[in-house]
Amino acid sequence: MSTNKPKLTKYPKRVLMDLSSDCNLKCPMCVVHGDTDNPKVNAIIKKQMKATDAKQILDEIVGHTTTIGPGLWSEPLMGRDIMMHLRSMKRRGFTLSMNTNALLLNKKTATNLVEIGVDSITISIDSTTNETLSKIRGVEKLEKIQDHVLQLLAIRGDSAVPRIGVSFTKQPENQHEEQEFIEKWTEIADFVRVGEIFENGKFPNIKINPEDRIPCAELYETMTIHTNGDVSICCLDGFKDVVVGNAVEEGVQNVWQGDKLNEIRKHHENGDWSKVPFCENCDRWASNSFTERQEGNLLIRQSAEFTFYNRIDRLNTWKSR
C-alpha cells in the first residue's frame, strides 16, 4: 500500500545548478572535494556549465520553478561566469539562495551580489578559532572570512536582500565551540544555521525512528543538475551514481516526470526502500519536518538535520518563510 504520496508538480519547485564544480578548499566532510583518494573525483571537479546550457534550462523552468541554488558541492564564486549566471537568473525572477566559504567574497564581489539582488547567502564558517578552522576546512583564515561577512553586511545595509547567515556543521573537532559560535553570530548575522554531521546516509548523533519513514520530499521538490546537464537522484549524489536523465538533452520537464524518477518515487511511496539502493539506508527524509519556538529575539526552527537561529528583528529578510 502506498504511504503519504506527495503531490508532484509539473516542474521542480527548486533547482540546484552546478554552474562550476571547482572549489578552493578540500574540507574532510565534503562528499566530493574531501575524498581526494576517490577515483571518481577527477570526472566531476573543475568543470563549468556552458552558458547556452544554463540559458536553455532557465528559459524552460521560468514561471514554474521558484528557487535556484547556484551550486552543489563546490564554491560557486569560483565559477568564471558566476555573476553573468546570477544576473540571468534574477532577470527571470528566480529566488536565489547560495552558500559560500567567503574566501573570495571581496568588496567587489560582495557589491555585485547585493546589486544583483541575490536573495540569501549563507557563509560556512564552522569554528570560532583558527585552530579549529584548520581541522575542519584546512585553512587558518578565520579573520579574513569574518571580515568578508561583516563587509557584506555593511554593503547590504538596511536592504531586505540578501538575507545573510553563517553556518556551523557539528563535528568532533568543533563541537566544543558550538555555543560560542551561536552566541557570537546571532548578534551579527540575520541567522545562524547549525547542522548535524551527515555520514553514509546517517545522522550519527541523532536517533531516527525508521518506522516513521515517509517518501523523501527531495524527490518531489528539488532537481539536482550537474555541469553537463546530468540530473542525479538528489543533491547527496555528488558523484552521479544514479543519473535519471539529462536536463539539456531531454529537457527539465521530461526528466522530472520521466520513467526513471517516477519509478524511484513509486518505490518510496510503497515503502520499498531496498529497491532504491542509493536511498535504502538514508535518513535524510527526516530533515523535511520541523518545529519552531521563540527564545528572546530568536525564532528557532529545528529539524533532524538543521537548527536555524533566526533574528526576529531581521525577519524582513526572510522571503520564503
From TrEMBL:
Single Gene Ontology MF annotation: metal ion binding
Cross-referenced InterPro entries: 4Fe4S-binding_SPASM_dom, AdoMet-like_SPASM_containing, Aldolase_TIM, Radical_SAM_PqqE_MftC-like, rSAM, rSAM_sf
Leader sequence segment: none
Residue stretches making up the Radical SAM core domain: 20-147
Cofactor(s) essential for the protein: [4Fe-4S] cluster
Keywords tagged on the record: 4Fe-4S, Iron, Iron-sulfur, Metal-binding, S-adenosyl-L-methionine
A Pfam family assignment: SPASM
Protein's name in the database: Radical SAM protein
Species the sequence originates in: Pseudoalteromonas rubra
